Amino acid sequence: MNTSFYAIILAGGSGTRLWPLSRALLPKQLLALDGGTETLLQHTASRVKEVFAPCRMYTVTNDEQAFEVVNQVKEINPLLADHVLTEPQKRNTLPAIMLALAQIVAIDQEAVIAVFPADHKIEANGAWHHALGRAFDLALQGRFVTFGVLPTKPETGYGYIRRGSVLGDSAFDVVDFVEKPDLATATAYLESGDYYWNSGMFVFRAANFLEAVRAFQPSVWTWWEQRYETPLATNYEKLPDISVDYGIAEKITAKAMVTANFSWDDLGNWEAIYRIGEKDAVSNSIQGDVLARDCQGNLLISQGGKLACAGLTDMVVVQTRDATLVCPRKACQEVKDVVAELKKQGSPLVETHLTVLRPWGSYTVLEEGDGYKIKRIMVSPQGKLSLQLHHHRAEHWVVVSGTAQVQLGEREVLLTENQSIDIPKVTKHRLSNPGMLPLTLIEIQTGSYLGEDDIVRYSDVYGRTKKSACYSSEERHENDLP
Question: DSSP letter at 249?
Answer without folding.
Answer: I
